[in-house]
Amino acid sequence: MLGLAGMGSENQAAIPCGNGCESSACTHCTQRALVAKQHLFTHGDEQRYIYYVHAGCLRLYKTLGNGRRQVIGFSFAGDFIGFGIGPEFPYNAQSIGRSEVRCLPRGTFHRLALEIPRFAFRLYEATTLELAAAHDLALTIGQRNSAAAVASFLLWLSRRNERRGVEPTTISLPMPRTDIADYLGLTGETVSRTFTRLKVGGLIRVTRKRLVQLTDLPALLELAEGMAGEHAGYRHSDGPRRTPH
Amino acid sequence: MLGLAGMGSENQAAIPCGNGCESSACTHCTQRALVAKQHLFTHGDEQRYIYYVHAGCLRLYKTLGNGRRQVIGFSFAGDFIGFGIGPEFPYNAQSIGRSEVRCLPRGTFHRLALEIPRFAFRLYEATTLELAAAHDLALTIGQRNSAAAVASFLLWLSRRNERRGVEPTTISLPMPRTDIADYLGLTGETVSRTFTRLKVGGLIRVTRKRLVQLTDLPALLELAEGMAGEHAGYRHSDGPRRTPH
DNA sequence: CGACAAGTTGATACCGTTCAACCTGCGTGG
DNA sequence: CCACGCAGGTTGAACGGTATCAACTTGTCG
Question: What is the pLDDT of residues B117-134, one digit of tens each?
Fold first, then answer.
């Protein structure tokens, strides 16, 4: 019903729009193609549409007055962007490479929500999943060290693959290192260094810079929880420490 | 209508329950009194109720395998706790001091949502506000240094006061320093040091440890945005630096 | 009052940042 | 087709903000 079937991502709300976006909400939708680094919208823009990513990948981010940037999420094909009720977008959405989005007029979207309870309930559900993802992000940024943060990032993408029936140990990273860094509250250099340490530790294998193979999932899981045991491949530097961070 | 009037907090969804919780959702609600440090629920508990904080203050937090804790929010009187659709709570809710909550059976809550579109839409709105707060938290933890983080925390409480018609320059902190620390991704010691630096800088005045007066809002706003100008009271240590953090 | 939790302050260590140099890969245009 | 250019990525050295550990002070509640 409604063409809003299930959820896909835990990061961006994902309500697959059926085969080709033929849901009732999509009746009057327009398309938009974006080139690399082009913004779909920026912080403060009037919220006119809710977007559905048909192809490509976007980064969602907020900035501070001094220019520092926090990536708050990535939107992949099949994800929705722009749930929210304020008059303006509270963050920026920018295409990473080339991408294609469908624009659903906010008005009809919300009218449907008020007419059809199940529809509104689905919006509630979807937002709830995004909220859980945002809480996980806070946990990662605030409490995980660089290794744990990168590990949990990779595992997140792995679980995402799994949910979509894709091989969960081979991961493609559409985004540059700096995006991963600004997502995890680190710098590009630190992310790069962490990748190589995971690599020499035998936990991952990197090919073509945007392709990663997870070769030791149990170790990655332990790392992500901050339980960097002595047994497995990865050891932080030299000598054990009390409480790393 | 419905007894669900407006929003109160940007942190926890706040739909004031009217005067005394006489909304239709509250028809069969039960009460629960909590003492200091008592948990309302913990991570993994079955989600049976949605809670309404009638008095007191709770901390919501998640933990890592190694024991590190991330506070993801504070729930004050008038806030709701426990929106979400999964079978289990994805975080812990613990009373800070003494508090009192009303328990709304999740089933009737969701049944109402499916029967009454406006109700479901309100849930969607409320969750959306929580999501924005979670994104702000990620920005704070990931990109603000300790001074900026504490400043934005105080300003958040100030705005909260303002919205409730309370004096926005006098702030009470029901939570201990360690909670603020785990909320901002810092340690209690760092929070304490930051408070005293703000104090000697003349930006705040601290009385009785849980009461703060904001004596220089413009400077706090600049600090929170990372634009620690040379003019105002607060200067980080000695000598200017390129990009602090 | 007395005990214990919470908060402050100090000394030191270190993880991640910063700055810088270099490498790599890919798209563009001569 | 190769040369060039440049963004993205890696690696190194040094600095510094924050964590850690520890001692002490303050506040609070029974």
Answer: 889 999 999 999 999 999
